[in-house]
Amino acid sequence: MKTFNCTAIVIFCLILLFSCAPDPEPGSEVHIRGATGAVDDDRLTQADADPGNWLSYGRNYAEDRYSMLDQITNENIDQLGLAWSYDTGMRGGVETTPLVVDGIMYLTGPWSIVYALDARTGDELWTWDPEVPRLHGLKACCDVVNRGAALYKGKVYVGTFDGRLVALDAANGEPLWSVATFDPSTDYSITGAPRAVKGNIIIGNGGAEFGVRGYVSAYDAENGDLVWRTYTVPGNPSESFESEAMEQAAETWSGQWWEAGGGGTVWDAMAYDPELNLLYVGTGNGSPWSRNLRSPGGGDNLYLSSILALNPDDGQIVWHYQTTPGDHWDFTATQPLILADLEIEDQLRKVIMQAPKNGFFFVIDRETGEFISAEAYVPVTWADSVDGSTGRPVERPEAVYGTDPVEVQPEPFGGHNWQPMAFNHETGFVYVPVHQRASTFSDDPNWNYEPGQINTGIRIRWETGGISHGALLAWDPVEQREAWRVPLAHQWNGGVLTTAADLVFQGGGDGRFVAYDARTGDVMWEVSTGQGIIGSPVTYQIDGDQYITIAAGWGGAHGRTNPPVGEAAQYEQFGRVLTFKLGGSAPMPKLTPRRESVFIPDIGLPSSPDVISRGKNLFEMNCFICHGGAGASEGAMPNLQKANQATHEAFEEIVLGGLREAKGMPSFEGLLTPEEVAFIQAYIVSEAKKTKEGATE
Question: Which secondary structure element, helix H or strand E, spans residue 277, and what is its range?
Fold first, then answer.
């Protein structure tokens, strides 16, 4: 008599059932859970073996933004066409780097909104709005932007502008947990992308212009528990220091620096070396900017404007390198970091590369923090060079301003800002979005720290005469020299992607999206989008087709109130995702023309000199940061001098009633009275009349 193993039969039947089941529908929750759930430590560490996806902010832990996809080449790029587009409908700078995993795309927009799209078609799968209180936008030195998300084990992580770190279910966008990384009543903000490292989510913050103390934190990816927090500048010495590193750093400060926070915020750059088990972060400027006011007795003010190597398990500082000791000019070192192995003087070195704001391109040993080399990549007037024996910039005494104005290059926007650079392993070049302009600094003798206000402690004038705007620079990091440079029409442009097919992709402030020959800088392909571009392109592959995606949307520190140029200057600026592939034949989406002329409403308003003066003061305290001088923004935010009759008739309801909060305009209920709103409106109309009269003279 035969016997049967029932358990074996059940297992066999189950295997047969699942092997015959159809593959999940692309974009379905089942498909997304399977795709995103597989993004774990091993897959992130081995990202170079997965070129069809873009799994993290810089594509891999080295953050080199180099793709090995090579279907799109110099020979066939003329066949590149639009595959699909997606409109967010939101104003404000779009600084995101999209993530792509197995046909699913995740990106972020202004106000920290998260979008999940079908990467084949652009169809919306879900969106999640964290509903950041719009008044928190007053704490935005540089627009309510967000640079991207992190993806790990089926969750999408985003830092919100008002300081939350949120884990979303990657399949449907439902929040799974949320933690406050700072007290929302303080002057911090988050604009940077988190990173997933060894089961933790790493996030920093911004706000040094307002007066805060910088730190970076690690949270457990599963439940949001705080694992460690590392401060970047020392606090009040009368209280216990958090670490030996902070105690040592305090010796490089003087005065009562902690009263205005000190600065040093970790608002952007990170990279990770799994082999060395080192997490690298870049730190920001001092608070206030002027070291005369911040640390009147001198000192390097560690760890401002530095690259820090941290142990990712506990956050302890392993080594540091300071790019601008005693920073005096807002020369942050928060610009992107790239890890690479370079042959230097016949020796293979593990290096970290950075082009921080201060104008020098640095190559540092990433094992030890030892200085290797640095050369100026844009005109520099604050220092002569970086000393090869000490690794310290040779500062020019005449560039150290006091109450007398001093002109300096680079300006506070830097020779290079947050826009990502890329390293091509074939050409050996780093491609850097650069800009050059001078500015004149002087101490503000009347400055006193005031919470909730800009606290730079300086007076500044932007210089433009005789200085070009922006460029795409190809830099040889071994020879420390320029390989080629392409002048651009605007100083404020997008991040960079490079591929194994010897191509470099970048969008610009004139609305063009361009592909360059990676070896020569020759333009190989371009398309005019009509939208100023400051975001960073990515590439991915689905079913054998290579795609190139760029998220457009004008804004950011420079674009919030300053206009794009070229064709983009003709159109209203809203967020838009554009994806291209060979043979793509979708039509370019329609654009909305800008209002051409100033409008004078037919509405009764007070107009006495006292009213106009009070309206001006109220406007500059509450409205200037978004709408620019006299309300005449030509950037991402609306030009109030061109507001139509309907807007003026609803002015109080907009300002106090929250009529346009969904579009980003906060309600000032409780901060302004109806009478004060009328004063502001009267001031805007009076300025519009001046503009119109000037145009007709």
Answer: none
As a whole number of angstroms, the distance between CA 418 and CA 356 comes to 9
Parent domain of 132: 47-582
Separation of alpha carbons 564 and 634, rounded Å: 8
C-alpha span between 64 and 20 (Å, rounded)? 41
Please give the structure tokens belonging to residue 32: 């997304």
Look up 365 and say whether it is catalytic: no
Please, is 37 exposed, middle or buried when counting C-beta atoms within 10 Å of its C-beta (0-12, 13-18, 19+)? middle
Beta partners for 220? Answer: 200
Please pick, among 330, 443, 502, 510, the residue that the annotation labels catalytic. 330
The two tokens of residue 656 are 């106090």
pLDDT at 467: 53
Instruction: Please state the pTM of the whole predicted model.
Output: 0.93
**Is 601 a member of any domain?**
no
Mean pLDDT across 264-286: 98
Please give the pLDDT value at position 325: 98
**Residues 466, 615 within the same domain:** no
The mean predicted confidence, pLDDT, of the chain is 93
Residues 356-374: b if buried by 16+ CB within 10 A, e if exposed: bbbbbbbbbbbbebebbbb
Between strands 262-263 and 286-287, the pairing is: antiparallel
Q: Does one domain contain both 279 and 183?
A: yes
How high is the pLDDT of residue 502?
98
Tokens of residue 309, six digits: 């190597």
List pLDDT tens digits, range 7-48: 444 444 434 434 455 568 888 999 999 999 999 999 999 999
Residues 480, 432 within the same domain: yes
CB of 163 within 8 A of CB of 208? Answer: no
User: In the prediction, which pLDDT does 594 show?
Assistant: 86
pLDDT of residue 462: 80
Determine the number of helices (DSSP H) and then strands (DSSP E) in the chain: 11, 40
Question: What gap in Å lies between CA 643 and CA 637, rounded to an integer?
Answer: 12
pLDDT level of residue 697 (50, 70, 90 thresholds): very low
